[in-house]
Design brief:
This protein has 280 residues and is mostly helical. The protein contains nine helices and three strands. Strands 2-1-3 form a three-stranded antiparallel β-sheet.
Length: 280
């Protein structure tokens, strides 16, 4: 089976969208002065900070960004699983069996007659989007995005307070604000994108596989030096969608790029079952 079954393009696009959302707030912070010596100075700069954040024009619709990203991941997961299942079918079914299932004898992909094991839906089903799992995923993502300016504002306010109290020099305060705004803006966007796209990929793959009748999978990593030790141990092991591994399913742990590979024997059995139903 091929490696890199991870929607890296969807992650990069999501990170870029989130950075676009965060950038105006990073610029708003530059309007604040760290020359706070008295309580009045501090109050004045805090008020200026709050006004600067309130005046930021929203450049992206948060809900639309999240839904678009979920759809991008869905397209990737759907196509990837179709390729995965087609590969299994091509390597294990005869030419006659492939033709009976409406699959190409060259690629294993569906022809005019598609089988349930080869999902084609490019957009997340409405019923899936309204499920508790997807509602939670959508809610978690919108909250993470809306928390970016809140956390940035709180951190800058705290740095101004420490400067007012004499715990920081002007240079220290300026450096800390620069570092914090980058950490909570550009860098935070990348972290959210990596973590949440992995979770989206995991959930969508689970739902597509279980809908097709597959209840077990093989844990696969990306096979590079960024894979955590415990996930290297999971590589090649079989888990069920019902129970998962001690750390959950691939993609669920924080910043996880692992993925689930359909259990070959189950795919073959389901193909055979479809053939038997065709003959009845």
């Amino acid at each position: 089976m091929k490696k890199n079954r991870y929607p890296i393009k969807a992650e990069e696009e999501y990170a870029e969208q989130l950075q676009d959302i965060a950038k105006p707030y990073e610029l708003a912070v530059t309007k604040v002065s760290v020359d706070v010596i008295t309580k009045d100075d501090y109050d004045k700069e805090v008020e200026k900070l709050e006004e600067a954040f309130k005046s930021v024009k929203v450049v992206k619709n948060t809900d639309e960004v999240v839904v678009q990203t979920m759809n991008n991941v869905n397209v990737f997961a759907t196509n990837d699983l179709s390729d995965n299942i087609a590969e299994i079918a091509l390597n294990n079914l005869s030419k006659n069996e492939l033709e009976a299932l409406g699959l190409s004898t060259k690629t294993g992909r569906p022809l005019s007659k598609a089988v349930e094991l080869a999902p084609k839906q490019p957009i997340i089903k409405q019923s899936r989007m309204s499920s508790p799992t997807f509602k939670r995923l959508f809610k978690d993502n919108t909250k993470l995005i809306k928390d970016i300016p809140k956390k940035m504002q709180n951190e800058v306010r705290q740095i101004l307070y420490e400067k007012y109290k004499g715990n920081l020099t002007k240079e220290q305060a300026e450096r800390m604000i620069r570092n914090k705004t980058k950490e909570l803006g550009e860098n935070r966007a990348k972290v959210i994108a990596r973590d949440q796209v992995g979770k989206m990929n995991s959930i969508i793959r689970q739902e597509i596989s279980t809908e097709a009748g597959i209840d077990s999978y093989i844990w696969r990593t990306q096979g590079d030096d960024r894979v955590r030790d415990s996930h290297e141990d999971f590589e090649g092991q079989t888990f069920t969608y019902k129970e998962g591994s001690p750390e959950g399913h691939p993609g669920e742990p924080i910043m996880c790029r692992c993925y689930d590979e359909p259990l070959e024997q189950q795919v073959i059995e389901l193909c055979k079952q479809s053939l038997e139903e065709e003959e009845e």
